[in-house]
Design goal:
The complex is a heterodimer of chains A (about 100) and B (about 140). Chain A has about 100 residues and is of the alpha+beta class. Chain A has helices spanning about 10-20, 35-45, 50-65, 75-85; strands at about 25-30, 65-70, 90-95. Chain A is globular, with a radius of gyration of 19 Å. Chain B is globular. Classes of the chains: A alpha+beta (about 100), B mainly alpha (about 140).
Chain lengths: ~100, ~140
């Protein structure tokens, strides 16, 4: 009788489940047009962030090129993205 | 220069000259003529996933265009008002922002720091700076 070491196998169902569980992230990208004060206001207005957090996110966008401003299920993320677009901000969705 | 907008008990008081109001009246047409401003007014949500983006665009339909058109109509119909309510001021602010995006595209602005290098003799450059002043004042009173 021989034995073999356990081998890892791909389980697409497991991967798919984990993928579906991961929240979507709403990413705002730096653009050279929108005022810093306006971007802070949008983050406060749309997401209810306190001024310190909204300012931190705005500076992250400005200095690093992007920031994650909200996350959640696809429907919520798409709603947030749509509202950001209505306010002229460059927003996209991703799921890590 | 006095603040163009101030909070009052009745709402948001507008302190603009006739010439300034006439200038703002040109913004709806400017935005419409600007189209999607090189994609800046037609951002995609799912940039790396075409089928998901297609489903998203089907879901949202023309709601973004409709919302922007409603904002422009609100601005156009309230330009002579002495006092704005908050929702009207929000519409003004978004139209001003859309106009700045269109102007930025026309001016070829694609990176930070353009304020230091822009040709200030250009009427578009003057307008984008003035609209920044207007938008910043609106942000202050809506804060």
């Amino acid at each position: 009788m021989t034995t073999s070491a356990p081998q890892e196998v791909d389980d697409p169902l497991v991967d798919e489940k984990h993928s579906a569980d991961r929240p979507w992230q709403v990413v705002v990208w730096n653009d050279p047009v929108n005022l810093m004060s306006y971007v802070v206001w949008v983050f406060r207005k749309l997401f209810g962030h306190p001024v310190d957090e909204a300012t931190r996110l705005m500076l992250q966008v400005h200095n690093e090129g992007r920031a994650i401003v909200s996350s959640g299920p696809l429907e919520k993320a798409e709603f947030d993205c749509h509202r950001l677009h209505h306010h002229g901000l460059w927003a996209t969705l991703e799921r890590p | 220069m006095s603040a163009p907008f101030k909070r009052s008990r009745k709402g948001i008081a507008v302190n603009l000259t006739h010439a300034e109001r006439a200038l703002l009246a040109t913004l709806p047409e400017l935005v419409v003529e600007g189209g999607d401003a090189g994609g800046r007014l037609a951002y995609q949500a799912h940039t790396a996933d075409a089928p998901t983006e297609e489903a998203y665009q089907t879901l949202v339909g023309d709601s973004l265009d409709t919302a922007r058109a409603d904002d422009r109509k609100t601005l156009a119909s309230t330009l002579e008002e002495a006092v704005l309510d908050e929702n009207t001021a929000l519409a003004w602010m978004r139209v001003v922002g859309d106009a700045r995006i269109v102007l930025a595209h026309r001016l070829g602005i694609d990176r930070d720091g353009w304020e230091e290098t822009i040709d200030r003799s250009s009427s578009d450059a003057v307008l984008i700076s003035y609209l920044g002043f207007i938008q910043d004042s609106l942000v202050s009173v809506l804060d």
